[in-house]
């Protein structure tokens, strides 16, 4: 049997679009051992891991975490580079994982880096922003969850009203900024053949999940047979 590498699948979108929920569900679905000894995707994907960026557990990630919680200020270029460094520090482990045949479902990646930094008022140059992440492993698939600003606002209000805990919004969690972020994502996906846009307004978690799983199924063979590429090179 040919040994296949794992797939690198990235979920992107504004804050509150449901990425993390969907990422968890995808990993669970891909790890479910189906009958007759076949992988859940016809033997191609048999094991998957959930990864998340920023990875707040590393030394760099702890700085990012403080910044996002507004516990410290950081110059825009400097924080952009820290986010990128936080992805680069995980590359050896990421490549090792994919080599082992394990697929990675990634909750945010370099596209967040570009979209969030480029959405800032004092714009950082788009090309300058790109360079920091250029050369990272290129995802096989980018699943972009698209949310309307009305639905976004409604979700935020619900989150703040719900639970017993007071929800404190992080630095970027404002609707006007998130709309700008979505506009930047729009620029990023132009001309890319590995992006899929999924409208999530008024759709149930289950419907979106099946939607995503079908896109993965349609792409799994082609992807795992190719050597992993390099981003923006
Ligand atoms: P999350 O843990 O997924 O809620 O993401 C934390 C926040 O950080 C979210 O608002 C998106 C933002 N973010 C993620 N990656 C980057 C990045 O590379 N650069 C910038 N400026 N922001 C990012
Ligand atoms: Na967030
Ligand atoms: Na999330």
Architecture overview:
The chain has a 5-stranded parallel beta sheet, with helices on both faces. The protein has a two-stranded antiparallel ribbon with strand order 4-7. The chain contains 9 helices and 7 strands; from the N terminus they run βαβαααβααββααβαβ. The chain is α/β, with parallel strands linked by helices. It has helices spanning 19-31, 59-68, 76-88, 91-99, 110-118, 126-133, 149-161, 175-189, 205-225; strands spanning 8-13, 48-52, 103-107, 137-138, 141-146, 195-199, 229-230. It is globular, with a radius of gyration of 18 Å. Helix content is 48%, strand content 13%. The longest helix is centred in the C-terminal third of the chain and has 21 residues, at 205-225. The chain starts with 7 loop residues before the first strand and ends with a strand. 2'-deoxyguanosine-5'-monophosphate is lined by residues 15, 53-54, 68, 80, 83, 108, 112-113, 116-117, 170, 172. Keywords: ATP-binding, Kinase, Nucleotide biosynthesis, Nucleotide-binding, Transferase. It comes from Capitella teleta.
């Amino acid at each position: 049997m040919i040994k296949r590498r794992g797939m690198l699948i990235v979920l992107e979108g504004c804050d509150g679009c449901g990425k993390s929920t969907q990422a968890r569900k995808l990993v669970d679905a891909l790890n479910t051992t189906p009958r007759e000894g076949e992988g859940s995707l016809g033997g191609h994907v048999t094991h998957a891991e959930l990864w998340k960026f920023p990875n707040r557990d590393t030394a760099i990630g702890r700085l990012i975490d403080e910044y996002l919680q507004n516990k410290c200020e950081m110059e825009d270029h400097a924080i952009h580079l820290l986010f990128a460094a936080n992805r680069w520090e995980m590359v050896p482990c990421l490549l090792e994982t994919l080599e082992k045949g394990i697929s990675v479902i990634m909750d945010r990646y370099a596209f967040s880096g570009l979209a969030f930094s480029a959405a800032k008022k004092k714009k950082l140059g788009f090309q300058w922003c790109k360079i920091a992440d250029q050369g990272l492993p290129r995802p096989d698939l980018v699943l972009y969850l698209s949310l309307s600003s009305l639905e976004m606002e409604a979700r935020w209000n619900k989150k703040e009203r719900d639970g017993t805990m007071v929800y404190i919004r992080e630095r970027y969690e404002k609707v006007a900024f998130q709309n700008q972020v979505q506009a930047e994502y729009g620029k990023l996906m132009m001309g890319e053949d590995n992006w899929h846009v999924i409208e999530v307004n008024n759709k149930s978690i289950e419907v979106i999940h099946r939607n995503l799983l079908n896109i993965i199924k349609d792409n799994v063979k082609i992807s795992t047979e190719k050597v992993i590429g390099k981003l923006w090179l």
